[in-house]
Amino acid sequence: MTKKMPKDFLWGGATAANQYEGGWNEGGRGPSIADILTGGSVNKSRRLTPPAPLEDEFYPNHEATDFYHHWKEDIRLFAEMGFKIYRFSISWSRIFPKGDEELPNEEGLKFYDNVINELLKYNIEPLVTISHYENPLHLSLEYGGWKNRKLIDFYMNFAKVLFTRYKGKVKYWLTFNEINMLTVPFGGIFCAGILDENENNEENRYQAMHHQLVASALAVKMAHAIDPNNKLGCMLAYHNGYPYTCHPEDILFAQQYGQLHNSIAGDVHVRGKYPGFAKRFFEENNITLKIDDNDNKILQEGTVDFVSISYYSSICVSATSDGEKTSSNGSENIKNPYLKASDWGWQIDATGLRYVLNQIYDRYQLPIMIVENGIGAIDEVSSDGKIHDDYRIDYMRKHIEQMKEAVYDGVELIAYTSWGCTDVVSASTGEVRKRYGLIYVNKHDDGSGDLSRMPKDSFYWYKKVIESNGEEL
Ligand code: BG6
Fold first, then answer.
1. Is 423 in the pocket of ligand 1 (CB under 6 A)?
2. What is the CATH number of the domain that holds 317?
3. Quick check: is 472 in a domain?
4. What predicted TM-score, i.e. pTM, was given to this entire model?
5. Among 46, 49, 374, 411, which residue has the fewest nearby CB atoms (within 10 Å)?
């Protein structure tokens, strides 16, 4: 048997509104939490400046890489690459500028009507993330973010507008981006919109996660009722933590790391209830969740149709030793001596992708989408005016090879969308120079650049991969 990808495999790319769209104060849009985050770097954290942007600060997400004014051109480039699917998020504050209004902003919806119609024109399947790292700012300032149960109703109002408006046009939906980032402080800000540092503690984050899990389950039920063809997925930042040594304590620690960072949220989404180990973890960490009587029923009735993940790197974890530390997506942990890393220290581990896909499929037996994968790198324009990003091609080739292995292992993989298919602003550092794109955007960290687009070498390479359904790597 040769290692082939399924016939209808969905190849494509992924972005998020807050990092890509720009137009932060156009078309009636209200500010989101991403609009009060300054730029940063690998050594300097981004800073929040509530309640509003400051005059003398630079906010990279305000213009981002300007999909708001380049959507037609960018979608044409996606079509040229042969995309079958495009993952993007809908900016909540473009539709509900404050988040708690009853009626949506029609001008905001028109923008997404255009985007979706343009995708469908090229037979590109839209995959919509309902909430990707940008709660309307007002919901944080007025209600304290997702630790407040009221946000469930506001989210449902938003979701209903989307499911109704895009009925028959959008079939695939993700309820929350990387919900499991709520296990770390980063997620308290990005996922939950908890802006006060003193409030960004474990108890509030797990309470916020509970509210999002309830909202997700309600959204699944609603979407199925509005259109039985709708398919809803959860989205996990897959934390792949290997035991640093074969000491049994390290093996157990790695298992617990995975349970905590991946499976608490994943199990509730897929199985409709908290796993046994969650109870012990909450008890031992003095986390008391407020769970309404009806919540368990809601969770049971709103389980997802598929699982999606972001996968960039792996990390080592240990209960027994202190190794040299490095960062990975959303956390910092021990370096793996067998792996090389990106310029931002994220360790490149293609084999880990096969491992993770098998692990998820063994656990859930649901179709899987890889909705984020790629390498953040510094791209230089060469003397011939082009970008020769062979390091990106190498990264993607190795990961796609492992994806094929996983399919051969029996994993039901249905989609792959490479992250930041057009260059976007980095979520963790706020930089543009941490580029993931197959399409270069002439935009720089000091805000300069004419925003023109240019395919990189990886663009032409990926086009062939898609054309050959993964045969030509
Ligand atoms: C994921 C997020 O965590 O990783 C994206 O869903 C993010 O929003 C991506 O951009 C890469 O991370 P970063 O920090 O390099 O942008």
1. no
2. 3.20.20.80
3. no
4. 0.98
5. 49
